[in-house]
Write the structure tokens for this entry.
Amino acid sequence: EDQVTQSPEALRLQEGESSSLNCSYTVSGLRGLFWYRQDPGKGPEFLFTLYSAGEEKEKERLKATLTKKESFLHITAPKPEDSATYLCAVQSQGGSEKLVFGKGTKLTVNP
Amino acid sequence: DAGVIQSPRHEVTEMGQEVTLRCKPISGHNSLFWYRQTMMRGLELLIYFNNNVPIDDSGMPEDRFSAKMPNASFSTLKIQPSEPRDSAVYFCASSLSQGYGYTFGSGTRLTVV
């Protein structure tokens, strides 16, 4: 069974203080690893898809990286507007489009 | 595009009542997903459709839950009878194809009292 574990559960940063969020996964053949951002009262918003180990993708202050066992979401010089819950999900090979999500990391950036 | 549209945004109902949640996917997307989100269990897939056909309903909790997709632009998730443990946020999402990210709706917050 595919599993995703995210750590830490919550992270509090000062504005400008860079850090990383971790997503460890177990999957029977990875088709893709997905990162989402979720703001309170809203649906998850797609950020990145990573397909193979060694791949990296960037968007503004966010950079996602992938190894064979985990993914990191690096946040460089965060701003208060980066505060949200960040969700990681995996999709396995074999035909199913199902995404299995972790429980997320709640990030708070204080001004 | 208006994105994935869900209705209602909030629903409060009494135990034993029937609840129907509605979803309009993004035009052109051929897969539709229903997820449930709770603090304890996070996001869990209930069922997904591809080209209006149910593909995986293994996440549907029990016979009280049913989902339909009569055409490419509309889906419903029905709970009958509802129970307090069904209280959660229910999300609908759609996708262009395998390997692409989903686009989620804003969710329906269901409270069963």
